[in-house]
Design a protein that fits this description.
By secondary structure, the protein is mostly helical. The protein has a single domain, classed as Zincin-like (2-Layer Sandwich), CATH 3.30.2010. It is built from 5 helices and 3 strands; from the N terminus they run H-H-E-E-E-H-H-H. Strands 1-3-2 form a 3-stranded mixed beta sheet, with helices on one face. Strand 2 and strand 3 form a beta hairpin. It is globular, with a radius of gyration of 17 Å. The relative contact order is 0.16.
Length: 152
Amino acid sequence: MAQQTPKVKKRAGKVIHSAVSQHALEKAKEIRTRYGDEIDYRTVLNMLEDRKSVRYPVKIRFVSEGIEPGMFAKTEPISDNPEDGYTILLHSYYKNRHDDIPALILYQLVLVNYGDLATANDAEIFGATVLGMDRDAYYKQIASLVDAAWGC
């Protein structure tokens, strides 16, 4: 008896990811409308306090340990309860680079707003839209910042 090859099924995951991407885009547009065209470090810190923009409380810390090589940050829940908030651990290289920090924080915010459903695609869409940038330019900026932190 010939073995049948299972058919590839469409997964609900594609629909979910599409919905997350769409919601991230809409949320980013709302944020840009609310905060304007000049999104600087102070603006992003204010945004972190705004539950219409960021679902849960967020603290920013600058560390070197615990950031995987080739990465710029790590986002961790404070507890098992999302309402307690999150900490975004940014590589210490960025501590005094206030012009670069908004792009990095915005990339991480999809993890706060959408958890494990968020993808790199969603992060790029969200960050680029809030900053009013072309997505490819935003991606290149993030990649360049990562390379700079790791001496590449």
